[in-house]
From TrEMBL:
Pfam families: VWA_CoxE
Composition-biased stretches (Gly residues): 121-137
Protein name, UniProt field: VWA containing CoxE family protein
Coiled-coil ranges (or none): none
PANTHER family: BLL5662 PROTEIN-RELATED (PTHR39338), BLR6139 PROTEIN (PTHR39338:SF5)
Chain residue ranges for the region called Disordered: 116-146
């Protein structure tokens, strides 16, 4: 039992849940006081290993996958080795599950045939109001609304998906997810190394996911009903992901379980790869990081009568005494609130990363004496006032629409540096820290290096955060090598882990 727990805890660490040796001992002590059941084991892990909101869902997912895989592995080891004892066609489903799924498929077929019979040949309104036995007037209105209540025509798969999300039954959603995964990838087919995101995209295509989502946005339903059905769509997406993960673990558990754990580690996921639910979780962690950094005082070095020796001033003073450091100069730390100027690229490839940087600066702006924020694509504009709003995602969209930063739609760093030099140079001085977030992809346009050099000379330090992978710098239209010599620090910043480390270093 202990060796299985050690392997599972390693999975939790790969998923971004830190587990110390002391917490492992607490878990073992808790298990010694409880009955050895699956529910008690999960409760003990939740009580001793979970420290932040959101980690319990990761724990539950990995717990189910790991112990289900472990049970299947144990069952295979217990099977007899004689060929005569192995059935030729082993059943894949239990009798109860098979009968339930068969009844569900029969019900879907009856509904599909009934909807076709109710439709007139000319494509007008159905004649009946509700249908046969078991279907009331509300069900009939739903079926007619799916086919005629929107400007978006739905195919058969889309009508079925729309009916299921309108009903919102957990059993129907789970059955649809199981059937979709079984149809796309039968269990007897082996496709190792297939990208799970591509598999999910294929599932959505077969279910007419985009058409149903578009239909839902255009339908004349009330706002409450739309929100309910959108939530059902998210539930179905989570079930599809769950079925795909179980399928992957059945095929290659030794390889896929660690891969699923690494995918669940949001701190290592690129900001551009996060789904809407994960974006909310990461934004919550970025805001928490900003509040933590905002309470930490900043310091600067000043001359003092005692303390650490200031080497540079001591060497300069030694020039008056023949190079012998007779007089020692000291330096101390004085609390300060620096000035900050942030320039963020909001072009299509960088905008997801800029949102998190702007959120961090917005959360900890009380730490600085002055904060000025600018956004740019092929022109630049100040957005300090707009960033005071709470809904940062909507603010970023409004910035792209309402300001003049989006002219051609392609990044032009040379034009941005030239415009900033002529219009906003007055905000820079020797106490300013200039932070730039961009990938330095200039679409083969002039670099404006001379303007960037003059901008860097005006400030205390320049820190460039590049969301592109480091190996792609200085390739194709990237001109990062032209700007690097004028920056004090250049970091790769594409996920929460990197942003946290950089923020703690520079703030």
């Amino acid at each position: 039992m202990v060796e299985y727990l050690i392997v599972f805890i390693q999975l939790l660490r790969e998923a971004g849940i830190p587990v110390s040796t002391g917490e492992m001992l607490d878990l073992l002590q808790a298990l010694s006081l409880l009955e050895p059941t699956r529910e008690n084991l999960l409760l003990a892990m939740q009580a001793t290993l979970i420290k932040e909101t959101g980690q319990e869902r990761i724990l539950e997912k990995l717990f189910d996958l790991y112990w289900t895989t472990l049970k299947q592995k144990t069952r295979k080891q217990e099977q007899p080795t004689k060929k005569t004892a192995i059935p030729i066609h082993p059943p894949r489903l239990s009798r109860e599950e098979f009968n339930a799924r068969l009844a569900q498929m029969k019900e879907w077929l009856r509904q599909a045939l009934k909807s076709e019979d109710d439709l007139p040949a000319g494509g007008g309104e159905p004649g009946g109001q509700g249908g046969g036995k078991g279907n009331g007037p509300e069900q009939g209105r739903r079926e007619r609304h799916f086919q005629h209540g929107s400007t978006v025509p739905l195919a058969a798969a889309g009508q079925r998906l729309a009916m299921i999300i309108a009903k919102g039954s957990e059993e129907d959603l789970k059955a649809l997810a199981q059937e979709a995964v079984f149809t796309l990838v039968p269990p007897d087919e082996v496709t190792p190394g297939e990208d799970p995101r591509q598999m999910l995209k294929q599932l959505k295509t077969r279910l007419d996911w985009v058409q149903v989502k578009d239909w839902l946005e255009r339908s004349p339903l009330g706002e409450a009903e739309k929100l309910r059905q959108q939530e059902n769509l998210l539930r179905l997406e989570r079930l599809l992901n769950r079925e795909l993960e179980q399928l992957r673990c059945k095929r290659q558990p030794e390889k896929e379980l660690p891969a699923i754990a690494r995918e669940a580690n949001l701190s290592q996921r690129s900001f551009a790869e996060l789904d809407p639910e994960q974006v909310i979780q990461v934004k919550r962690q970025v805001a928490r990081l900003g509040r933590r950094l905002a309470t930490r005082e900043g310091y600067r070095r000043v001359p003092a009568t005692r303390g650490a020796v200031d080497i540079s001033r001591t060497v300069r003073r030694a020039a008056t005494t023949g190079g012998v450091p007779i007089i020692l100069c000291h330096q101390g730390r004085q609390a300060t609130r620096p000035d900050l100027v942030v320039l963020c690229d909001l072009s299509g490839s960088v905008a997801p990363y800029s949102q998190f940087m702007l959120l961090l600066v917005h959360t900890m702006q009380n730490k600085f004496r002055m904060v000025r924020s600018y956004a740019f694509v092929d022109a630049i504009a100040e957005v300090t006032v707009q960033l005071r709003e709470l809904d940062l995602e909507r603010t970023v969209r409004n910035i792209q629409r309402q300001t003049g930063i989006w002219r051609t739609g392609f990044s032009d760093y040379g034009a941005v540096w030239r415009q900033f030099f002529h219009e906003h140079l007055h905000v820079l001085h020797r106490k300013v820290t200039l932070i730039i977030l961009g990938d330095a992809r200039n679409n083969y346009k002039p670099s404006g290096e001379e303007y960037f050099r003059e901008i860097c000379r005006r400030v205390r330090q320049v820190i460039w955060l590049n969301p592109a992978p480091r190996e792609s710098w200085n390739q194709e239209d990237s001109i990062m090598h032209l700007y690097t010599p004028y920056c004090r620090h250049v970091f790769e910043c594409r996920n929460l882990s990197q942003l946290t480390r950089i923020a703690r270093q520079i703030f």
